[in-house]
Amino acid sequence: xxxxxxxxxxxxxxxxxxxxxxxxxxxxxxxxxxxxxxxxxxxxxxxxxxxxxxxxxxxxxxxxxxxxxxxxxxxxxxxxxxxxxxxxxxxxxxxxxxxxxxxxxxxxxxxxxxxxxxxxxxxxxxxxxxxxxxxxxxxxxxxxxxxxxxxxxxxxxxxxxxxxxxxxxxxxxxxxxxxxxxxxxxxxxxxxxxxxxxxxxxxxxxxxxxxxxxxxxxxxxxxxxxxxxxxxxxxxxxxxxxxxxxxxxxxxxxxxxxxxxxxxxxxxxxxxxxxxxxxxxxxxxxxxxxxxxxxxxxxxxxxxxxxxxxxxxxxxxxxxxxxxxxxxxxxxxxxxxxxxxxxxxxxxxxxxxxxxxxxxxxxxxxxxxxxxxxxxxxxxxxxxxxxxxxxxxxxxxxxxxxxxxxxxxxxxxxxxxxxxxxxxxxxxxxxxxxxxxxxxxxxxxxxxxxxxxxxxxxxxxxxxxxxxxxxxxxxxxxxxxxxxxxxxxxxxxxxxxxxxxxxxxxxxxxxxxxxxxxxxxxx
Amino acid sequence: xxxxxxxxxxxxxxxxxxxxxxxxxxxxxxxxxxxxxxxxxxxxxxxxxxxxxxxxxxxxxxxxxxxxxxxxxxxxxxxxxxxxxxxxxxxxxxxxxxxxxxxxxxxxxxxxxxxxxxxxxxxxxxxxxxxxxxxxxxxxxxxxxxxxxxxxxxxxxxxxxxxxxxxxxxxxxxxxxxxxxxxxxxxxxxxxxxxxxxxxxxxxxxxxxxxxxx
Lengths: 523, 214
What we know:
A: alpha+beta, 3 domains, 16% strand, B: 2 domains
């Protein structure tokens, strides 16, 4: 029986209608019995057609309609159709029994119809409640921002909210009943390999599953969306898994925001690092200048001390009895020599300053630069007990560059080597400075006999902040590298066969210089 | 070539400093030898005269402090005056602990150096005299017979002849005889002299020094 017909049997109709139905049904039965009268006579089979009336009344009108119909039918059939007719008496014992049966059956039918109606009523209420619940559930899932897909225990989609449909680019018709793997296709963002659907994993493991990071959802139209998701089992009343619910969301915007923030942080960090480097470079340069200053002071101080002592000696020679004129004269000669030496240092400093003013990009002789730096660094090297040897190639072609900067490079390399060797308690402290002409380039090498650098650190030596010195800033070699590279050259370090390290840099020789050098070599 | 009365060695790698110091020291009548490196000094022969060494702390190659250590290892006891352009306290402490006479930081007054040099030479002269004296006495001691050495040590300990005779199991006149010979051989004038000599020649082990060739 269809639900429409069921609904017609509702007993919640107003009572006049129920009574009407009961009376109409009874009247119908009466008419039907009357119609049989020509065939069977007026007073036989008095009750049978009224069973129909009771049934119809109870069915459509409920308990009270059934009872009403039973009573009215009983009265009508006794009065009209039972022997003797037109009387409330029943002569026939058969009819008396039939009346009792009719009333009993009528009451039973009314009660049955009633209980049937009550059951139907309950079922309908329950169905209504479920429908309301379901509608609320669907409304909720449809209106939340995350995509939701639900599947049955086989993994076929049973529900998809709007967001989910939008993300997978499908209609409800496309999606419902389709296996989840065909709807929700995901790959790893980097390997681009297929990732197992979390639904499948939930079905296998029976636990809540979160998705790995970096997952891309491939929609039906091929667009790729980065997503974040999780899946959970849906349990039936007995705890068995009846399906899986999958919740996922588009994280494109979050990604973009994160990337933007990250980029900003990175830019800020880079800016800070650059400023720090610049500051350290300034400090390192200043300290190099300070060391250079100390060296110059020492260089001037030595001959001046000689002048003073020789002057004192001269006085002593003259004050002897008789005065020793020869020795006094010799003292004065020494004074003149030392004064000249001090003057030479001063001249060298002045020369240095002049070249500094003359600026960058002048052709310059690296051999001369090496000699000048060595002369100035002499005090420093001596302090560390370092013996210096030079192997400078004759006829070295000039290079083009910033005199002061290159001087600083050489000075830094000398200081590094010297300080490295000062760490060595025993063993020779030898520093060798070589220059040579190789192809279109000029090569300068500073070789020391210090502790060297372990091979693992060799690659990092020229990076900022790398240092092996206890108080070192790790800027010296990094500054050297930036200077050399700014001159179009390169700088590298290698371990010696014996103890120590060699730092070597190449600078391009000037074209004219190279030609001149090769002419000299061939002539 | 006759050896001078005294000698000053200068080791400094700076020509100006070397020449100036030589000139200064010669102007007060001192004999001077100069060296530009520690190794040069070590490999040159040194006459046996009172001397001192004026040494630059920072030297290329073997440093001044290294040289001081090497000299100590070679038991060469020449007094050292350090000079330095970059003196620092730990270094000077190290040098003085290792026995340096003086540690002068440039610029120093010339007179300070001269005083230090004079003092060092005098110290070396005294040390040499002391060493020569001890060597002479030891040679004499070595010429004593074993019995005479026994008698000498007991006398030096202050025992009377009679006690010595008892200790050694010999007669008193024999002790007297030995004692007279000991006094003669060591050139001691009195008992006090003898005790003094005994202290000088035998500080660590009392009576049984192994006999050494003089």
